[in-house]
């Protein structure tokens, strides 16, 4: 949400809260997913730049270089125009019901017909749900068919587009099929936007001053746990639209999340890589039956709490509310679509949007 609101400081804050909790690869995957969900359609040339930068990351210094990569990408996305087209169609495609028994095979004729009708909702549903598109070769074939169809309306260098895209989906940084299908969906919508004479954003990029960026990153390294109380800069429930997403706290089994956080935070924090390493230093292990952390001896346990000095139930009300404040479902998906979809290429009717359940974050 911070990216869509063009709030650079908040976007970087949340990205690195996740990153420095021990999830560097996951954060990278998510940033790439965001690019295809929101930015690719109007910024297709940024794709090549982004992956050139990613290739510069070395195994020897992966943790620091990935952090620099993420900051560079956020700094570049923050000033770019975006659309909700891919994001909305991807989620509609994942959620809408379709009876595949009526379709023996999703073939070239069906794809061509949907393109002629400009029925991108149904096309996205086939792409996201049809089992055959788990196969990279089938995705490549679909992309080829789309280019052939769009090639009668716009100029596309098929050989170049196929080579570039095949390399991406064949060696995708994120292994799950969702991103691979999202790449194809984003390209389909981009071709359509060119056909509709949408103006593409200029190929202008912010470059990293490496040493300066390293200094900048120090601000986003959360110094657990001593500074956690003062570093809680943004509330998790700040944005009115956060309730449209399928959050863990909405699940029935997590209704006691406030008590869990205040009274038994150690057990629930344990699986986070950062905290798992911390507990290991003090010989603390997770006991699933008792739902608590068990230490090898009492002295180690005392050392842990003395060194960490972190007691959520003793933190200020303001800090508690920023971390675990109630998230109300005060806005709906259609309101989100209307507020942020000003540059959308494909018109989605309100009745189609209201059929969507809460958005699942991938």
Automatic annotation (TrEMBL):
Protein name in the entry: Uncharacterized protein
Organism: viral metagenome
């Amino acid at each position: 949400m911070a990216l869509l609101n063009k709030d650079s400081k908040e976007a970087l804050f949340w990205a690195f809260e996740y990153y420095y909790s021990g999830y560097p690869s996951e954060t990278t995957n998510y940033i790439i997913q965001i690019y295809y969900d929101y930015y690719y359609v109007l910024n297709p040339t940024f794709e090549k730049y982004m992956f050139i930068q990613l290739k510069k990351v070395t195994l020897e210094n992966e943790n620091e270089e990935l952090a620099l990569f993420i900051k560079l990408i956020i700094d570049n996305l923050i000033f770019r125009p975006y659309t909700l087209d891919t994001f909305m169609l991807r989620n509609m495609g994942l959620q809408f019901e379709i009876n595949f028994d009526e379709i023996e095979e999703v073939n070239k004729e069906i794809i061509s017909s949907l393109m002629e009708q400009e029925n991108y909702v149904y096309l996205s549903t086939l792409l996201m749900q049809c089992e055959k598109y788990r196969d990279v070769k089938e995705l490549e074939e679909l992309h080829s068919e789309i280019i052939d169809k769009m090639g009668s309306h716009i100029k596309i260098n098929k050989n170049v587009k196929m080579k570039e895209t095949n390399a991406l989906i064949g060696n995708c940084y994120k292994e799950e099929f969702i991103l691979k299908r999202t790449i194809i969906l984003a390209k389909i919508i981009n071709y359509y936007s060119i056909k509709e004479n949408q103006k593409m954003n200029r190929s202008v990029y912010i470059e990293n001053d490496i040493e300066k960026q390293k200094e900048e990153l120090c601000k986003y390294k959360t110094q657990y746990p001593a500074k956690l109380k003062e570093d809680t800069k943004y509330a998790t429930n700040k944005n009115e639209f956060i309730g449209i997403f399928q959050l863990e706290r909405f699940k029935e089994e997590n209704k006691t999340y406030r008590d869990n956080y205040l009274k038994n935070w150690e057990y629930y924090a344990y699986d986070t890589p950062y905290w798992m390493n911390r507990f290991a230093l003090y010989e603390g292990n997770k006991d699933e039956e008792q739902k608590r952390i068990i230490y090898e001896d009492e002295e180690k346990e005392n050392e842990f709490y003395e060194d960490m000095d972190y007691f959520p139930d003793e933190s200020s009300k303001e800090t508690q509310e920023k971390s675990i404040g109630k998230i109300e479902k005060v806005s709906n998906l259609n309101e989100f679509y209307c507020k942020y979809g000003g540059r959308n290429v494909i018109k989605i009717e309100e009745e189609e949007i209201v059929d969507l359940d809460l958005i699942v974050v991938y």
